[in-house]
Amino acid sequence: MEMFTKLHELLLRRLELMDLVRALQNITVTHPAYGTLLFKDLPFNDEVFLRWWARSLSLMDPEALEMAIDGRLGASWNSEYFRKVTCPMLIIQADPKWGGLVGERDVREGKATNQQTVHVLLKDVGHSLHIHQPGPVQRALGNFLGSLE
């Protein structure tokens, strides 16, 4: 939530791209493994990534972050979404202690409503798991797709 709040504040400032990159580099975050540090000092947050991420953020509607901050985003999520999926489904869950948004309830509902659901928990991987740890994500996807008939 801390990160969403800080990103929201940056987006409301409507900064130019390079100003957003610099601001993003210098926000402080609290990380379960590293404590409080500058965002640029987190693993994998090199200049190229931060520039790419700033560009992505600059295209984002700040209300999307408001919805995450005030709970509207999670409140709209329910098992009805899972019931609409009739094919095999893979849930790749980032570690909640590292900022993963998919919770145990979501996993339980997914498995309860779709018997073809497979769940993979990636420990010590945060919300942006496909960016920061693409290897485990690729392995999970490859194994899942390889298991389909």
Question: Would you mind describing this structure in some detail?
Answer:
The chain is α+β, with helices and mostly antiparallel strands. It folds into two domains: 71 residues, no CATH class; 69 residues, no CATH class. The protein has nine helices and four strands. The strands form two sheets. It has a two-stranded antiparallel ribbon. Strands 3-4 form a two-stranded parallel ribbon. Helix 1 packs antiparallel against helix 4. The longest helix has 14 residues. The model has no long low-confidence stretch (mean pLDDT 86).
Which word captures the global form? globular
Q: How many independent structural domains?
A: 2
Q: Report the biggest beta sheet as strand number plus sense, adding barrel if it closes.
A: 2 strands, antiparallel
Mean pLDDT: 86
Low-confidence stretches: none
Elements, N to C (H/E): HHEEHHHHEHEHH
**Rg, alpha carbons:** 17 Å
Topology, number of strands: 4
